[in-house]
Design goal:
Protein name: STAR5 protein
Keywords: Lipid transport, Lipid-binding, Transport
CATH architecture: 2-Layer Sandwich
InterPro entries: StARD5/6, START-like_dom_sf, START_lipid-bd_dom
Distance between the termini: 32 Å
Number of domains: 1
Largest sheet: 6 strands, mixed
Strand content: 35-45%
Organism: Onychorhynchus coronatus
Number of helices: 3
Order of helices and strands: HEEEHHEEEEEE
Domain START: 1-156
Length: 156
């Protein structure tokens, strides 16, 4: 979990190589080739007219949180094991897609939540196997490389 958090901090500090691919008035999505796997990294950025604390309440990875209410790609989120006050093992399930052509997925990750001195809040995760969370029938087990969300305060 700590390695995933550090990887996200490195992505944030290294602005090089990102290429814009989609943009609306609210969100800009960029990509760049990954150095870890055969594929691309993606990041979405936007500024919301809300306090960082309010935004964090919407995105933080906790059981019973708001993410399952607004994010159509997150069907369920459950904590499998709490390892410390900031680290846990979690399972996230996604619904089927494209008229059920794509099967529902489940992801088991070790997740860390942090707050930094500048007010930035971070959740970072990466794939893990856990004995209390074997693959379930009717789900495809997904694999996450280091990933997460950053909530960064901006002036004003």
């Amino acid at each position: 979990a700590e390695a995933a958090a550090e990887k996200l901090r490195l992505y944030r500090r290294d602005p090089g190589g990102w290429r814009g691919c989609r943009s609306t008035g609210e969100v800009a999505v960029s990509w760049r080739p990954s150095t870890e796997f055969a594929g691309n990294l993606y990041k979405g950025e936007g500024i919301l007219p809300a306090s960082p604390r309010d935004v964090w309440e919407c995105i933080k990875p906790v059981a019973g949180g708001l993410r399952t209410k607004w994010d159509q790609n997150v069907k369920d989120f459950e904590v499998i094991e709490v390892l410390s006050d900031t680290i846990s093992v979690c399972r996230t399930t996604t619904p089927s897609a494209f008229m059920r052509i794509i099967s529902p997925r489940e992801f088991v990750d070790v997740v860390v939540m942090k707050q930094y001195e500048d007010g930035t809040m971070l959740s970072a995760a990466t794939n893990v196997e856990h004995p209390l969370c074997p693959p379930r029938p009717n789900f495809v087990r997904g694999f996450n490389y280091p990933c997460g969300c950053l909530c960064v305060p901006v002036p004003g």
